[in-house]
Amino acid sequence: MEQEKEQILSDISQINMKEQLLVPNPNNYEGYMKIKSFTPARLGLWRCGPRYKTQSVLRFRADHAAAQDSVFSSVNPELIKEMQFIAIQTLCQSKDEYLTRPDLGRRFSKENEEKIKQQITGHPKIQLVVGDGLSSAAIEANIKEIIPSIKQGLNYYDLDCEKHIFVKYCRVGVMDQVGEITDADVVCMLIGERPGLATAQSMSAYIAYRPTMGMPEMRRTVVSNIHAQGIPPVEAGAYISELLYKMLHYKKSGLDLKAVENENDN
Amino acid sequence: MESTVLSVGIDIGTSTTQLVLSRLTLQNKASSFSVPNIVISKKEIIYQSAIIFTPLMDGYTIDYPQIAQFVAQEYLNAGIDREAIQIGAIIITGETARKENAERVVQTLSHDAGDFVVATAGPDLEGILAAKGAGAGKYSKGKKAPIINLDIGGGTTNLAALDGDQVLDTACFDIGGRLIRIDPISMEVSYIAPKIKYLIHQLNIGVHEGSVLQSAKQLNPIIDVLVRVLENSVGVGERNPFFDHLITNHSFSKLDPSLVRLITFSGGVADCMEQDETQNPFIYGDIGLLLGRKLRESMIFQHKTVVHSHETIRATVVGAGSYSVTVSGSTISYTQSVLPLRNIPILRLAIEKAKLDTGKLANCIKNQLEVFRINGVLANVAIYMTGLSSPTFAQLQSCAKAIRLGADELIKNEVPLIVMTDEDIAKALGHSLFTFLPPKYPYVCIDRIRVGSGDYIDIGEPVAHAAVLPVSVKTLLFY
Questions:
Q1: B110 touches chain A (CB under 8 A)
Q2: Strands A186-192 and A203-209
Q3: Is B35 in contact with A239 (Cβ distance < 8 A)?
Q4: CATH architecture group of domain A10-71
Q5: PANTHER family, from UniProt (chain B) (predicted)?
Q6: N or C: which terminus of chain A carries fewer CB neighbours within 10 A?
Q7: Where do the domains of chain A lie?
Q8: How far is the C-alpha of B137 from the C-alpha of B309, rounded, in Å?
Q9: Is the ipTM of this complex over 0.90?
Q10: Quick one: fold of A74-265?
Q11: How does residue A75 score in pLDDT terms, banded at 50, 70 and 90?
């Protein structure tokens, strides 16, 4: 114990808050911990007079900073290279523009359009698109686990996908343009979710059958909350592979897919 | 999107046999933007049978034809087809589980009662099902506090300590209402259970099979001991010298029962606690009423908070009908042709993700499989892995490879491969297994199941639009 006390904690966010109770001498420690286990909310922080304790304030600021960082940082170029992504960019030129002009984050320039056309030919059945979205940290945390899992799942259904696109300053709507450029049957976009104080590493998958620019949002199927504490990325990948298979089978996505599945059940 | 399944519970107890039919509603609790999460959202009892005395042929064997006839007749009365029953459980409890043909009776009946009705036995499971059936689990969940249920039946008292859905510990004592049987008119003692005979001998009371009682008071010293031991069992009062003598298999060992404040009573004797004092104490031909009355005056009521239970004499059967089956996680991977699977033992592996080594894990599986070799033949097992919360893809591959290598002999024998996990990874792990297994090799890979070593599982055919598999975790202990 003595030694532990002398160690330096270089990053306060290494503490698992679910296992930490700051209330001194709780009446029912087990009961309190059990309540905490049901929620990521910051329960049992205790106080100093009417204020939070220093530790709680620091942790709150650290988590808030992590959330902001994940919005304002970029996905490591090494990772993009390692994954052999085709790297392109939307019409946005900076993070500020990305945040203030959502419309520009949904379209490519002519130049980038050509780049995709050159590299992806023969209208693939499945096109994966990876986008930084509002959290680059989410992509860095999950992409290396989810893509092999999707590919392995597709193998189970006798399908495959190759040549994935990476989009910088990416909004979901850009997948529609990818659909039109590549003529893919199904486009699956993996994109960083707006970070919160609970996690900055949450990713979503937006998937659509033959998406077109200006199509109604109801044609997208969404799988959200993909991160280590939510849906594990490997399991999400397996589930997404099944969704891709179903969309190719029914030639539908979004609410249309749900409707046809329900019909078949009854 | 909702779907329902029909479940049957049958309890063949020391003194009574009964049946209930429940309708379980399965519902996807996740939003449309998330991976499905199908849970049992509602449990309704739609039919309760009459309670009959357990038919015995000669005191030592269970009269199977009579039980089968009872079940068939009750299905008819309920207007339910045997084919419509998708899941359920038969439990053989108390002293009845010690009868010669007990094991054969439940196995046969589980087939006759429906396609996926599981056979179970053992005092631990009985206590758990009774506690859940009595509503103790639900109460504990609401109060976020642990609870102990005492199911006092004809031959045994089964205790289970629950904290919500979680089982903390179980215990069982040879204390029940029918340990001494007395003719209500002639007051002649017709039967005394072996352990009570010893007790009578030690207490030096002149009562034996065949003797005629002058008054119910003659039995008071015996009833006193039984009540003291029940008090002790939940951590109240000074330890009675007969405590150990009356233990069936074990008392609470994993928890200190004196720390648990909430108590519920179920079983036939729980009903006897409520009845008025004036009637003939031997109206049921046994000591149930005497035991119930004495229990009502026990110190348990001063030291603990006794909560009213939802079910008393029906607690176990309701538990068997509504609480014996859970559903797997909703993202899983399986070959339908191999289902249902019955009586599969568990090979448990605690994985340390950071130290995962394919070769070592494969060897570990191979060695542990040897435990399940009977007469030179390897029995099929379910490989149950824990500690795999959000693994990397490489770790997942490593596990799948290790299973392929470690279970090589099972695969050569062409038995379906069964893999289960606690954490939500079964679909991905299933896809990995598919990659490493021979082409079209049958397998089942499911998650969100909690089992212990020594348990057995049954896995049924898919329900809720093929999204989940019903799973029954049980013990199969005949003694």
A1: no
A2: antiparallel
A3: yes
A4: Orthogonal Bundle (1.10)
A5: CELL DIVISION PROTEIN FTSA-RELATED, ETHANOLAMINE AMMONIA-LYASE REACTIVASE EUTA
A6: N
A7: 10-71, 74-265
A8: 10
A9: no
A10: Rossmann fold (3.40.50)
A11: very high
